[in-house]
Amino acid sequence: NAELGVDINLESAWEKYGNGSHDTIVAMIDTGIDYNHEDLRDTLWINTDEIPGNGIDDDGNGFVDDVYGWNFYNNNNQIFSGTEDSHGTHGAGTISAGTGNGIGISGIVPGNRVRVMALKALGGEDGGGSTLDVIKAIKYAEDNGAVICNLSLTSMSNDKALYEAMKNSSMLFVVAAGNGSPRTGKGLNMDQIPFYPAAYDLDNIISVANMSIDGKLSDSSNYGKTTVDLAAPGSYILSTTPGNT
To answer: What residues contact residue 12 under an 8 Å CB cut-off, 6+ apart?
Structure first.
């Protein structure tokens, strides 16, 4: 059963900060995003220095036709490949799906206050990828004006290069604490068994655990007194999925 008050007090935030027109860019380093989704297409970042589909690197940044971002997983400009990009599409909707348009859901950020930059670094059936591609995506995000980076991904391998890339970045990273043991499905204490990048001791990381609708930590969520900063609703979340669903 849902517990009253287990939410993020979104309406009061909307009242305080309003719609505004502050185009903050949020980099979504994840699987790809369905950029044609009717509830997302008006909220995604667009590289206005690039002429779509002409096969030319118009802005000279080394990426040809990077209109919505880049696919580092396949090294091309196709940021949406189909159902393997459900996770990124779902996350993008949680952040910025159109508010008040009578379609689907409302994202957390109303109006045109945020643009989501699609950076596909994960793919395939298991949604896996390499830290090298994540590092490349971080550099792209910084070079193109992103100030917040969403990383809903974890690894039990500590890649020092990823640590350095995040440490030296000017972006704020919002990072998933992770879904615990792949074997048991139970959350683990990250203070003892670290999951990266959430466990990195950096000032520009907010490490987020998964809270269920009863106000308790989800059984699958990692936790840690020093490695996790906060918990937010993360179970039974309705959001955008590929194909206008």
So the answer is: none
Tokens of 169: 């970045």
Of 206, 240, 200, nearest to 92 (Cα)? Answer: 240
pLDDT higher than threshold 90 for residue 120: yes
Nearest alpha-carbon partner for 173 in 187, 157, 188, 162? 162
Q: What is the pLDDT of residue 34?
A: 98
Integer Cα distance of 241 and 51 in angstroms: 27
Q: What is the pLDDT of residues 49-76, one digit of tens each?
A: 999 999 999 999 999 999 999 999 999 9
Dig out the tokens for 211 from the structure: 């809270």
Strand, helix or coil for residue 54: coil
Residue 230's DSSP bridge partners are 208
How many residues are present in the chain? 245
Residue 207 to residue 226: CA distance in whole angstroms: 10
Q: Which two tokens stand for residue 104?
A: 């689907």
Q: Which of 176, 240, 181, 234 is nearest to 207 (CA)?
A: 176
The gap between the terminal CA atoms of the chain, to the nearest Å, is 26
- pLDDT, tens only, 143-183: 999 999 999 999 999 999 999 999 999 999 999 999 998 88
Return the DSSP state at 186: -
41 token code pair: 């297409």
